[in-house]
Structure formats: C-alpha cells, structure tokens
Amino acid sequence: MPTSSPVRKPEFSSVESSYHRSYFYVGGQYMEDENGDGHHVLRGQMYVEQLLPLSGFRKPWPLVFIQGAGQTGTVSLNPALHNFLNTPDGRKGWASWLLDQGYIVYLLDQTCRGRSSYHPSSGSTITYPAELAEKRWTACREFLLWPEAALHTQWPGSGRMGDPIFDSYYASTVPSLKDYGAEQALMQAAGNCLLQRVGPAILITHSQGGTHGWLWADACPEMVKAIVAIEPAGPPFQSTIVNGPTVKMYGITDIPLNYDPPADQALDGGRPLQTQEHLAANGGTYILQQEPARQLINLLKIPVLLVTGEASYHAAYDESTVRYLRQAGVNVEHLKLADKGVHGNGHLQFLELNNLVIIQLLERWITAIV
C-alpha cells in the first residue's frame, strides 16, 4: 500500500507580480564558421522577454531595462536568479512593481551574454571577481575606497562572500565581453532592431548599460521617449573599472555618436573630440569638451533622468557626466537620492532595502514627462 510522503515546502518563495510572459530574439548576422567548411553561425543576436501585466497595460509607453556588466535580464521564481524582477533576498523588484502600475516591461540579455549566445569571434570575456563586487557594490562601507562609502547602509546582509544574500546575488553574474567598444556596436545594432519591433519606449539603464541607452537613442531618436540612467558608466572620457585605448573616446561611449559639428576622425591615435580638464569640488578633476562644444544632435529632444546614490562611488563623478550631457545640449535632470531624503544607497539601488522607495521616485518623473 503506498505511503504518503511529507509535503516539502519550496526553498524559495516569490513576490513577483503576475504577468503574461513571452520571449523572442532580435538582431544578429550570419557569419562563416571558423572551421572553414562553408557553414554559418548567427552572431550578435539578443534575447528579449516581454512581460505583460495580467490586469492589462495602462501606460502609453513600454519600459526597456538594460542591465550593467556581468548581469542578465533573468526571470525566475528563484531569488538566486534575479536582476530587476526581484532581489537576492526575495523582495519585490523594480520590474515587478512597474508591472503592478500597468507598464509593459522588456528585459533582455545583452549580446554575447546569458541567453544571447556568445561566439568566440566577438572577443574575449571578463568575469568580475567576488572581491570586486564586495568592495564596489555590496560591502563598500568596510573598505572605504571613497569617502561616501561610509554612508552605505541599504545592502541586505553583510555583502560578503558566505552571506547567503551576497552568494545569491553573485551566483547570478555572468561573463561579459571585455571589449566595451565591440559590445556597444553589437548592442546598438540589436537595440535598433528591438525598438523597430516594439515601437517607442522608455529606456531604464544601469551602469555599463548606460552607454547603450545613449547609443540606442542616437541611432533611432524617434523611438526613445525618455532615458532613466541609473549611475551610467562614467566619468566622461574615462573608466573607473575597465580601461583601454578607446575608452569613451566619444565622451560617454567608446564608439561614434552623432555630434554637430561632427566629431573628428579617430586616426593614428588621434582623439575625435577636443577636451579640457576642469577642477572638481572634491579636489579631483573631470573632462569636458572644449568650447564651443559639439552637440549630441539626436539626443536634444529626449528627456534624461540621471540617478545617483548617496554612498556609491558614482557620487564622486556623476555630476561630471551631467555637465557633459548639458554642455552637449541634452535635457538632463540629476536626481541625487539623498536630496530627496533617500539615504544610504550604493551602486545596486534596485536590489537594496529601499528599492521600492526609489522606483516610486523614478516613476513619478516618468509620469510627469510623458
């Protein structure tokens, strides 16, 4: 006679919102396989998920999330596999909250990453070590590599290896292309295909994904209604993590943007934009264009919100990114979370304890401008 087994409770519970889910791929080009046998493979395609609120969409424009380096747009009931839908400790994430408000949400895996198949011809990859994540993002208060790090209070848990919340977060990281210029070119092509398919949208970018927001808007400005840039890659003409000969040659990207007058040809090591160094309030320096500054002609009519956390390493230089954008004619508002009474945030705001307080601030801005 069969005996009943005790019912096992699932290891994880979910606070994700309910939605209809579909997925598709955009972009990519066929290229000859390196075996030289005349066979072809697809390179540069991008995986995209569309999430529709069960109650129906009530907002005019969908939201497209573009994550930072080493992350994907993973959708899962397991909080160990997260990014924007939930947090590594199982709380509701930004995308879930926005679904509740009636937005259509698109999540993606950047080209050559996660479910967007990698091909070796795209170049080598880099995986950020756990120690870098601790120092920069989750336990920066312990390392104090910049003064504002002492204010970091919003990461759930200790932020160190062995803490289950940190381990859950770090388990979701994946290799990214080491050559940011190559990645930007692939992502601009795929992003153009995505926007042509889904229509006009609002971009929500984070960190390294911020460069893609500028490039997508430059390639098809009529398809980008607004950009919310969460601590985008910066500062202008520099990088704080990965450096190379082409790092932000075009101010905020490694590959060309449309300037008026046009940027110079980057030949024989020459720089496409003339620059001038300025003294920052914290005693450091930042770089802008020489005056008269070339204008980012395709971004002039796109409203931008740039968001900075109080305790992040971006607190030291996001203002220079804002100044660069304004100098180039971009309509950008700088939201310093501390100025709105939101304190203690580092670079991964969408995963931190007060993440829903932050997304409500961002959604108010979106509602006001569109």
Short description:
The chain has 370 residues and is of the alpha/beta class. The protein has helices at 94-100, 130-138, 140-143, 164-171, 180-198, 210-219, 318-327, 355-369, and strands at residues 19-32, 40-53, 63-66, 105-109, 125-126, 176-177, 201-206, 224-230, 259-260, 275-279, 285-289, 295-296, 304-308, 332-336. Strand 7 (201-206), helix 6 (210-219) and strand 8 form a beta-alpha-beta unit.
Protein described:
By secondary structure, this protein is an alpha/beta fold. 22% of the residues lie in helices and 21% in strands. The protein has 8 helices and 14 strands. The chain has helices at residues 94-100, 130-138, 140-143, 164-171, 180-198, 210-219, 318-327, 355-369; strands at residues 19-32, 40-53, 63-66, 105-109, 125-126, 176-177, 201-206, 224-230, 259-260, 275-279, 285-289, 295-296, 304-308, 332-336. The strands form 4 sheets. An 8-stranded mixed β-sheet has the order 1-2-4-3-7-8-13-14, sandwiched between helices. Strands 5-6 form a two-stranded antiparallel ribbon. A hairpin with a 7-residue loop joins strand 1 (19-32) and strand 2 (40-53). Helix 5 packs across helix 6 (210-219). The chain starts with 18 loop residues before the first strand and ends with a helix. The model is unreliable at 1-12 and 75-82 (pLDDT under 50).
